[in-house]
Amino acid sequence: MFMVFIKSSYHIIKRDKTMYDFPIEYDEPVFRPPSEGRSFLLQVTIGCSHNLCTYCNMYRSKKYRERELLEIEQELKKTHEYFQRLNYSPRRVFLCDGDALGASMDILRGSLRAIKELFPSVERVGVYATAQNMLDKSQEELEELKELGLSIAYLGLESGNDKVLHRIVKGNTAQDMIDGCEKLHLAGWDISIIGMLGIGGREFSNEHIADTAEIISKISPKYFSLLTTVAVRGTPLKRMVERGQFNMLTTKELTREMREIISNIEPSRGEILFRANHVSNQFPLGGSLKRDTSMILETLDEWLTQIPDGIYPETPQHML
Ligand code: SF4
């Protein structure tokens, strides 16, 4: 029996290919944001063009490459036939892998046109993007992609502090993140930003809090989520922790970071939908900033009175 494992950033999906006969053979592992859980996943690139962030092991097993457009088109046709047999019409598509916005315009344009033609029911196409991907595309190209249906980008900001970004080898500065997001906003895209609690370690926690709240206020993405930093097996971060070069935060310190970041966010354009529901978080939490800010802070203050000192979050099983 042939099994396909799709390891998302939220949970691992195990699919029995014999049972469902799904026509795509994914180049695993495949990740997608929690909110794309019901999306049809299409790999237009394999791996991540950066692949250096110290805490990330998602694509270390893969060599970055763009897929051939012909191969992608054939995959879309086969999936179209498959969905027709099931009388199913997808509403969302998510382009994988790690920074698929970095793919050439030929690949993105061709893939989006094929999606539009074969799946007219699709209302939204999303993609993971680095700030570099955003900066590398011209304003006109981002507008063209939006016209073709690509309308939401997920950016792993992690922190708004340059010292932290440098230490985790993020590859871009806070200003790059601001400039890249500005281009996307001008082109009419929605942006979902992911920050990481504890990514500055104990040493840079205060700077991380202040600068992350500031950059989120400036960018004011439609969505903002916070994940908890985990020292994942096989990563440089894990080795730094083992050598005592990076001090992980306790559960209480992480919760305090979340509280301080949220309390300092002043959206500069509309409300920000905040979520902290990743599997690496200890507790799910969410709401609209600023509308629900005081409710979220009350909840966090309550948690802070209950969380004992000196306790560290449990590492999810699949990250050990
Ligand atoms: S850019 Fe994203 S996918 Fe690539 S190494 Fe960094 S965290 Fe991982």
UniProtKB/TrEMBL annotation:
<dbReference type="GO" id="GO:0003824">
    <property type="term" value="F:catalytic activity"/>
</dbReference>
<dbReference type="InterPro" id="IPR058240">
    <property type="entry name" value="rSAM_sf"/>
</dbReference>
<keyword id="KW-0479">Metal-binding</keyword>
<dbReference type="InterPro" id="IPR007197">
    <property type="entry name" value="rSAM"/>
</dbReference>
<feature type="domain" description="Radical SAM core">
    <location>
        <begin position="34"/>
        <end position="269"/>
    </location>
</feature>
<dbReference type="Pfam" id="PF04055">
    <property type="entry name" value="Radical_SAM"/>
</dbReference>
<keyword id="KW-0411">Iron-sulfur</keyword>
<keyword id="KW-0949">S-adenosyl-L-methionine</keyword>
<protein>
    <submittedName>
        <fullName>Radical SAM superfamily protein</fullName>
    </submittedName>
</protein>
<dbReference type="GO" id="GO:0046872">
    <property type="term" value="F:metal ion binding"/>
</dbReference>
<dbReference type="InterPro" id="IPR013785">
    <property type="entry name" value="Aldolase_TIM"/>
</dbReference>
<keyword id="KW-0408">Iron</keyword>
<dbReference type="InterPro" id="IPR006638">
    <property type="entry name" value="Elp3/MiaA/NifB-like_rSAM"/>
</dbReference>
<dbReference type="GO" id="GO:0051536">
    <property type="term" value="F:iron-sulfur cluster binding"/>
</dbReference>
<dbReference type="InterPro" id="IPR051198">
    <property type="entry name" value="BchE-like"/>
</dbReference>
